[in-house]
Design a protein that fits this description.
By secondary structure, the chain is of the alpha+beta class. The chain contains 14 helices and seven strands. It folds into two domains: 173 residues, Endonuclease III, domain 1 (Orthogonal Bundle); 128 residues, Alpha-Beta Complex (Nucleoside Triphosphate Pyrophosphohydrolase), CATH 3.90.79. It is elongated and about 80 Å long.
Amino acid sequence: MPSSLPILENYSGDFILPLLTWYKQHAADLPWRQTRNPYHIWLSEIMLQQTQVATVIPYYERFLAKFPTIAALAHAPQDDLLKQWEGLGYYSRARNLQAAAQQIVRNFGGELPQTATQLQALKGIGRYTAGAIASIAFDEHVPVLDGNVIRVFSRLFDNAEDVTRPTTIAKYWALAEQLMAGVPTGQAGNYNQALMELGRTICKPRNPDCAHCPIAQYCLARANGTQNERPVKAAKAKTPHYDVTCGLIRNENRELLITKRRDKDLLGGLWEFPGGKVENGETLEACLARELHEELGITVEVGEFFVKVQHAYTHFKITLFAFECVLAPTSAVPTCHECADFRWVSEERLSEFAFSKADRKIIEELNERPRRLL
């Protein structure tokens, strides 16, 4: 029968030593595993959130080459920071990383604090990330709990509770704390990484590779034939979709107008081609004219349709329609009403600025097409 959590008080954790042995033999050779530098480990944990390992590696290496110390990160211009992060997504991670670096310089003498409790006081570091850093970099005997670990535990104990519920997550944290008692001294970091590695490579969301699992003999879901039913997740609501417009506005020098998003906005600090979301009953052209007036106080002549881009964010999807535009003869000069900054830049200089993936697709199209005359 499926279990409820937390598990039996005197559970021995028989799976722990086989798991550690497997990890020692099969751990992936990753750059952040070749160091005990706390800054490097912290950076890797932030980059790995919601992002595949193979994607992270080149970003991790370039980032450390650009910002080799916490102090260098703390004092970096935000545009430089976001340019290094460009394409990795979830840009609040980069802004929080820098804010935390500034806290560390200001309050901890430039050295990362060594306990999970202290780490959670830093911007962008929650309980999971604090546990990962503290255990891997400082050998603190604290657990981690991410999606991979939850999946392993839900199968190991054949738990049928909905993992999207906060009450269930609280139970898994209690379980993780309980299991740490069976982890040998000095092995907390390896144990936590082993759980995450197992979930990433063997105990995958679909079609887990039970035949090669080092703890299969302890897995209740495998014994009950329910491994493909775990973890239990409530059905997701339908992802909303929005139509969005943007303008490729050129001046007399053929330079393009780009705007910088405010820090408080989604994708804050990134540059974009200005525009906004289409309202009900509004044409694309009318939307673009309205949005440009609201954001920049300008009046434009909307010209030819240029390209359509589709993109998915975490909680919604967009179709972005780009149009070529020019300022109307009677237009005011651009003024930031709903943006942080604006620039007129040549197409050749667009690569110097950090854009979201959707806008980068427009830039790719600009680079591939011959320039059009309006």
